[in-house]
Amino acid sequence: MILELHERDTEVLEQILSILKNHPEIEKFEIDEEPMVSFPGLEIFPSRRKVFRDRQEIQLTAKEYRILLLLATNKGRVLTYAQIYEQVWGDFTTGNENNTIGFHICNLREKLYRANPDAPFYIRSVREVGYCLEAFTERLE
Description:
- The chain has 141 residues and is of the alpha+beta class.
- Helix content is 40%, strand content 19%.
């Protein structure tokens, strides 16, 4: 049996859940919503470690993926080189990481651009500080 309930059916839902709690022998099937980080023109699925643009997967290296996920989950915030390095590489900075991070950001930008040249977002470089993922609408405000 499949039930479709609406917001006005909260009392009925509570009764059904109460019955199900009291009868663990009743088999229940639930649809798990897969968590997703959504950004204009981009979908990131952390549980699958995949990135999509218009249902087309964008192939990223492990480091590129982790950098993108970190920037997307901190959308609009400038992350320092040290913050990015510590989160992505899991190590403390020694002062030489800027070029390493810049190399991966450059590759990431190129792959995102190839997937969508007119993407409504960009990775902004903050000179001598770090990077920030922003939507174009944020830049115009």
